[in-house]
Records
---
Amino acid sequence: MLCKRIIARLDVKGPNLVKGVHLEGLRIIGNPYEFAKKYEEQGADEIIYIDTVASLYGRDNLVEIVRNTTKNVFIPITVGGGIRTINDIRALLNAGADKVAINTAAIRNPLFIKKAVEHFGSQCIVISVEAKQKEGYWEPYIENGREKTGKNVLAWIKHAIKLGAGEILLTSIDMEGTKNSFDMELIEAAQRVCTVPLVVCGGAGNLEHIREVFKKNIDGVALASVLHYNLLTVDEIKKGVSDIAPIRS
């Protein structure tokens, strides 16, 4: 059985690490490089950077962030936000990223997934899915949770995988930043259709929330608030779930 991953999620806006609730109301937390280094030292398996406004303003702040981070941080890094072209992906990988997470560009042009996989391999291409509950289903949003798509999350996950996506990063907009627990119904539905590694995000506020989600068939959790606000350290989480999930030491 593969080890399950504890991943630190760092949302950035300009030069700052930020955090919000429901992907809104972003407040400055600190320096993203310092937090990335801290989480590596605590034992995080990966770092995920998401530029929260890159798609909105059509800019790319991620290359510099990745390049600066990889000078001192030596765990895998996934980056997302504002990735629109093959050249964007190439620049991020050349800067030191291991994977890219694509949302807006993939939904607007699903064949971009296939093209990206052909160039870089499925192991590099993560599809970020920002899900919001509707009556009887979940809808994926784009532009960091700002814009509806009219699609169905589960159908979109299946389609993205069919096009070659190597991993799914699933964020519950409804639970994100609340520290009230994960959306377990969403996660259970997603794991039934997901045939590639599934990483879930949004809602963790204590160790029991993380233990509950690790009992499901997921491959990792991406954590923000619970780490940024010092509610738990990565090491405490690993010790706290070691009896129910294989965790990297």
---
Amino acid sequence: MRFAKFFKYCFLISLIAISCVKIEPKNVVPIEFKEGQKQFHRVCAVCHGADVSGGSKAPNLGQEKYFQVSYPNRKIKKTILNGSTSGAMPSQKSKVTDEEIKEIIKYIRYVQNK
């Protein structure tokens, strides 16, 4: 019984630790995109992966369907602020300013055009 309880606690601590892991960028970007890269990795990368590459929880934003032609900047901003319509992505409104969102979008577009 004690072992099961101990195992449960260890498992919970491991889950918390894994969810708190900071995702670091892998790509070097020009100076004008560094702030967006920093904010993306602070707010978005846990789900969307390093350098918008996607993850187990969220899509790769480098896919063509997220390019500006079919997924305009205002839609990205709205999704960041309000979450996705499917409910898969929660609102990030309390985590970012309008200026940070602008920089995140600029960074995403840079990565998409590479």
